[in-house]
Amino acid sequence: MLYEVDTPEEYLQSIPSDWRKEKLEELRALILKQSNEFEECINYKMLCYRLNGNAVFHLNAQKGYVSLYVGDIKKIDPQNTLLDGLNVGKGCIRFTKSKKIDSTRIDEFIAKSVELSRKGIDLSC
Q: Across the strands, what pairs with 54?
């Protein structure tokens, strides 16, 4: 789903208050916990998290899942050890209603993404 909003606050207000909002806010907190340097904005009609002007993450609430977009996942987790058990595409991690975020290693994946971004490594697809 795409949200016609201009600010992160408007985006958060646009999401229905259900499990998707809960999951999105949980992922958002994990991202923001990594650095107080993140610029939270809207990009491609999604929440975007930039570090030093470069987009590191995008978050979006879809109809059946919440998406965390990270660029090329293989550049961050080549052996797929941090994302084991998650629904993963080339650059997207999908969290459904039944997936408990705190029972995954997504926090470690997010931390590694931030670390690599700070080193200037290109994580794009």
A: 51
What's the predicted TM-score (pTM) here?
0.94
Within a 10 A sphere around the Cβ of 12, how many other Cβ atoms?
A: 16
Helices of type H across the chain: 8-14, 19-34, 73-76, 106-118
Contacts by 86-93, CB closer than 8 A, 24 or more apart: 90/125, 91/125, 92/67, 92/68, 93/67, 93/68
Domains of the chain plus CATH, in order, are 8-118 (3.90.1150.200)
**Contact yes or no for 11/3 (Cβ under 8 A):** yes
Cβ count within 10 A of residue 95: 24
pLDDT tens per residue, range 93-110: 999 999 999 999 999 999
